[in-house]
């Protein structure tokens, strides 16, 4: 008997907020923090907490900079993050199929 595909799900994406965060970033080069926050309907603190956790795993890059004199934080998926996301989605499809 072979192992069930659920065992191949990435635990980093099991939290709904992290899942939404990575899903949103997977379709863009980068996203401004406040735009991502609004898009996934959360607040600053939880978004920063989960984005930082994904950054520690090497899945998300957080880049702080300035636009004029205003600070701006941008988030993007790393190549490892995008690969892990695609693998996670393929696993979900295997389970559903």
From TrEMBL:
<dbReference type="Pfam" id="PF13601">
    <property type="entry name" value="HTH_34"/>
</dbReference>
<dbReference type="InterPro" id="IPR036388">
    <property type="entry name" value="WH-like_DNA-bd_sf"/>
</dbReference>
<dbReference type="InterPro" id="IPR036390">
    <property type="entry name" value="WH_DNA-bd_sf"/>
</dbReference>
<feature type="domain" description="Winged helix DNA-binding">
    <location>
        <begin position="17"/>
        <end position="95"/>
    </location>
</feature>
<protein>
    <submittedName>
        <fullName>Transcriptional regulator</fullName>
    </submittedName>
</protein>
<dbReference type="InterPro" id="IPR027395">
    <property type="entry name" value="WH_DNA-bd_dom"/>
</dbReference>
